[in-house]
Amino acid sequence: MSPEFATRYNRWRYNLYAPVYDRVVAAFFAPRRRRAIELLAPAPDERLLLLGAGTGLDLDYLSGCRQLTAIDVSDGMLARLRRRADRLGLAVDVRVMDGQRLDFPDACFDAVILHLILAVIPDPVACLREVERVLKPGGRAVVFDKFLPDGGHAGWARVAANWLTRLIATDINRQLGVIVGHTTLHIEHEESAGMGGFFRIALLRK
Ligand SMILES: C[S@@+](CC[C@H](N)C(=O)[O-])C[C@H]1O[C@@H](n2cnc3c(N)ncnc32)[C@H](O)[C@@H]1O
After folding, report:
1. Whose C-alpha lies nearest to ligand 1, atom 27?
2. CB atoms inside a 10 Å sphere around CB 184
3. Taking each helix axis from N to C terminus, what angle separates 3-40 and 75-88, rounded to the nearest 10 degrees?
4. Which residues are near ligand 1 (CB < 6 Å)?
5. Domain containing 10: what range?
6. Rounded distance, CA 8 to CA 16, Å?
7. Are the CB atoms for 89 and 119 separated by under 8 Å?
8. Please, which residues have CB within 8 angstroms of residue 172's CB and are 6 or more apart in sequence?
9. Structural domain count, the chain
10. Half-sphere exposure of 202 (CA within 13 A, CB side)
């Protein structure tokens, strides 16, 4: 599947998932989101980008932040994010945008949230290079997602399962270290976020 086609497919399927997304993922991921944002520790006046922001479930943990920008390819997901932001009384600059080609100038964000996006976006290296570009020097990004351990090898069962999971949800065979290795970002901290280390949280620094 070409990245262009995969991006159109993502837009289509997340518009389809939008009405049920929160019911399926909110409760299970809530403690991991809280932990990841705790690690990122955004200050109230920092410029913060939520990339692949979805319905805005992270906003529940960003009540002190005054300079929030959220982008996603799915306008259906973002419509829900706008309603959540209104409910929480948060001002968020919300834009439909491809995370592989950000329409922002260089070095304009202090921090980026990458929750459940690096395993979904067709080209995670292009995405992280864009994060690297838009982060200010010393800026940071927090990743929460599922990965194959660095240096690990996907057995045939995992390769086979990935055909299905990629189609309906997410790639399960990406390696965080390999993706980060294509940028000048470095992993400052990494920890397991459940399911025997299948889910991971990492803090990246420019
Ligand atoms: C699994 S959801 C995660 C949403 C949110 N970050 C969360 O933690 O709940 C993946 C999100 O990535 C978005 N997405 C997929 N491809 C994208 C792209 N190329 N650019 C921006 N967002 C994209 C989808 O529309 C969807 O909202």
Report:
1. 54
2. 10
3. 20
4. 7, 10, 14, 52-54, 57, 72-74, 77, 98-100, 115-117, 120-121
5. 3-205
6. 13
7. no
8. 119, 146, 148, 158, 161, 162, 165, 166, 198
9. 1
10. 25
pLDDT tens column, 29-88: 999 999 999 999 999 999 999 999 999 999 999 999 999 999 999 999 999 999 999 999
Residue matched to tokens 């990246």 = 204
**CATH code where residue 87 lies:** 3.40.50.150
Single pTM value for the model:
0.96
Which structure tokens are listed for 82?
């706008």
For residue 89, CA distances in Å to 3, 22, 84, 86, 158 come to 36, 19, 8, 5, 43
Distance CA(99)–CA(119), nearest Å, equals 13
Tell me which residue has its CA closest to atom 16 in ligand 1. Answer: 121
